[in-house]
Amino acid sequence: STEEVSRFISPPPPTVEGFERYVSWTHRQRASGQYVCFAVVPLRADAPIGLIHVRALGPGFATADWGFAIGSEFWGTGVLTEAAELVLEFAFNVLGIHRLEARAALCNGRGNGAMKKLGAEREGVLRHSFVRDGEFLDQVLWSILQDDWQKQQEKAPRGSRVVH
Fold first, then answer.
1. The pLDDT of residue 158
2. pTM of the predicted protein model
3. Which residues are registered as beta bridge partners of 125?
């Protein structure tokens, strides 16, 4: 809920009750086969430090979008990359996603850098596609195709994953 984390995402629920409603909504969406949401909890930690969601854009999960947020004190630690790679594995191997899309505000250097690091391809800029605090922001549209992700995994060195 800090400004530095939330400035490029839809506003998080402002109260505990609002967050409880969000959690209930995620459960209903998951039960209907439309949405999955993961808490990012480092090994031996007591509380989540972020979340990653995947949402179907049509019937099933052939095409989906995803998004993530993590506490700023964990930026640059590799925790988000590790969690995102686990979600990518789940998305492509379990959900059977063919195309996974993401949007990041053009001015969000960290978010766009994370997408590139994860192997996403920049497809274009969506002009004035996101409103935050009354301001229209441009967004970069990113995608990862299952075939491209699979090739990337085949090239990755074995045992390179670090669990935080």
1. 63
2. 0.84
3. 140
